[in-house]
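Posting this for the archive.
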Amino acid sequence: HVQLVESGGGSVQAGGSLRLSCAASGDTECMGWFRQAPEKDREGVVTVDHGGVVTYFADSVKGRFTISQDSAKNTVYLQMNNLTPLDTGTYYCAAGTPVGPQCGKWAGDFAYTGRGTQVTVS
């Protein structure tokens, strides 16, 4: 069982930046970030494999968000720049194993999910 702990959420004004962190309790092959706005379905933001290859990146965040990882610490980071109110929601870190040849892009593809961290952009 892998435990995930997210941190770094908060409230910012439009155009601002936040950096989310997710620390996993053990090695994982795939990690990702998902988000859920009020009354909306959870959606994928970005997923990455253990080697750092991005396997999914939502069009809505391309050019503004970047993902990085510290494999030695089993930690992934999500740098979010130029935030807009549409980015508001609860951000969840997820971990799991590949679906077929690569990491999945749906929340259901990941066996483990953190408790989430709130991001509010006004």
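The chain has a mean pLDDT of 94. The two ends are 37 Å apart (CA to CA).
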